C-alpha cells in the first residue's frame, strides 16, 4: 500500500495499515536504531506487512507524539547493515523505496515500510534458528510464535502442495469404496468418452493423483490428497489428528446457538471431503430459487448463486491447512452462507479478489475436484464469487483472515447494502439522529447493525470515500454517541452504541475456534472443537458460531455459564450511572499508586461480580500504568483463575480480548 505521510495524520495511518512507532532517540538523544525493531520487522513480515515510523513515540497506546529523528543517516545506515546480516535477521525484504525520510508535523522521521514476506521466505526470524525467534503480530504487540506455528510455516515454505505427500502404511483398504464409485460415476458423466473411465480402481486412482510415487525414497502409495478425498474419517485422523469437517444450518437470521441440521463425521457416513462436498452442497442449495431457463431444449438448474456457493465450498476445502487445529466449518442461515477453513491465505486477500493470483495449498485436491467439474481455473474462483454476488445486488462478500488460531473466513450475505428492515429499526430507535446522517455515515451505522461491527477496511470495501474521510467520519459517530469503539490502530472496531442497542451478543469469537472442552468417550476421537453438544454426538458444541462477527456472531460460552452476565469490553458501553458504580468499587485501588496484592484481588472480584470485564477495562478502572493489563493479568488475574475464584470468557489465557467473571460458586 502506498501511503503519503504528508497528507495523512497518524490516526488515519494507524487504521489504514499495521503501524508501529518507535522513539529511536537513543540513550544520549542523538538517535539510535532500537533493538526491538527486529521483532516488529519479523512480525510484520510474517503477517500482512506494515509501517514502522522511527522518531515517533506512541505512549500510551493510540496516542502519538512526533519527536523527529536526530542522526537520521546514521540510523538508516545501521538499518541497512543489519538487514544484510543473517546473524541479525533471516531475510532482507526492503528496497530503497521502503526506507525513506518523511516530514510529519514539521519533523523529519524515518519511514520503514515492511512488505508481507513471500511464503518461500517465511518464517522471517531473528538469528539462525527460527524456533523461539520468529515473531507474529497479535493486536498491537509482537509475540514469539510457538513451535507448532513455526513448523507449519516451514512446511508451507518447502511444500508447494501440502497434499502431495506419499503416505507410508496406507493403501486402498483405507478408502471408502462407495465414495470412490460415486466419484467415478460423476467423472463418467462429465467426461463420458474419457479413456480413464474403463480403468480398474487402482489405475484410475493413480491417474487422478490419489496414488503416487515418492521418487527420492523409491516408494509408492496413497497420497495425502487421496486419503482426504476418499478415506474414512477415522483413518484420516491417523494421518491428520485434528481433521474435522462440520456443517450447520441455523433456523433464523440472528445470533443464536441453535441448529436444525448438522453434519459431522459421526460414523453414519464416510467423513471424507468428497462426501462432505456432495452432501453439504445439496443442503446449501436445496431451497435456492431457480428461474426457468432452457438451453438446447434442457432446463438449466444452475444459477450464478449456485455457482458462487459451489466455488466458495470448493475453495474452502482445497485451501484448508488440515494440519491446523481449526475445523472446516460451513454455516447456512436464511440470510447468509458462511465458510471457514483452517490456515491463512497464501496470497493477500486483496490480490485474491482481483484474480489471476493463485497459490493453492492442496493442488492435488484442486485437480481432483476440477476433473469432475467443480472448482474454477487457478485464480478465478474468488473473483467469480464476488462477480456473481454483485449481480444479485447483495452485500459485497467478506473475505478475511484471523491470525490466532489461523483461519480464513468468507461470508456471503443475501441482503442489500441498506436492508429496509434494518433501516426501519434504526429510524425507530434513533429517529432524527439517524435520518439526518449523510450517506457514508448511514452506511457505517447500518453495516454495524447488520454485521455486528464495522471497521475502517470494511468501509473502504463498501464505499469509494478517501481513507482519511472514513477515519474522521467514524470518529464523529463515536463522539456523537451513535457508535462505540474498542481497540487501537488497525485493530479498531466500531459497533452500535449500547446506549441504544445491547451489545452482549456482539463479541468477536474467532479467537475461540480451538475449544478445549472435555470430550465424552463417544467423541474422544474428534477434535477438541466439538466438545459440548447433543446427546447423539456426545455433547458436541455448535462450533460454527466460532467465526468472526461477520460469520454468525454468537454470544461467548463462558467456562462456567452465568445467565444474564453482561460483557463489557469498553467503558463507552456504559451509562454514566453504571460507570459510577464501577468507579466506586475500584476507588480503593485507583486512588493509590501502590496497594497490597490482597486489596487488589478484592477489588477485581468486586468489579467482576455479575459481569464480564475486559482486561483493558479492568486496567483502566484500577488506574494501572500498564493500560494493556499484562502486568495485572500476570500478578492478579491468572492466580485468581487458578484458584477458581475468577472465570475466563475465552479459552486462550493471553487473548487480548479476554474478559473475566467472578465465580460466585467458589467456596
Automatic annotation (TrEMBL):
InterPro entries: RecG_C_sf, Schlafen_AlbA_2_dom, Schlafen_AlbA_2_dom_sf. It comes from the Bacteria. Residues 18-143 form the Schlafen AlbA-2 domain. Coiled coil: none annotated. PANTHER family: GLPR-RELATED TRANSCRIPTIONAL REPRESSOR (PTHR30595), SCHLAFEN ALBA-2 DOMAIN-CONTAINING PROTEIN (PTHR30595:SF6). This is RNA-binding domain-containing protein.
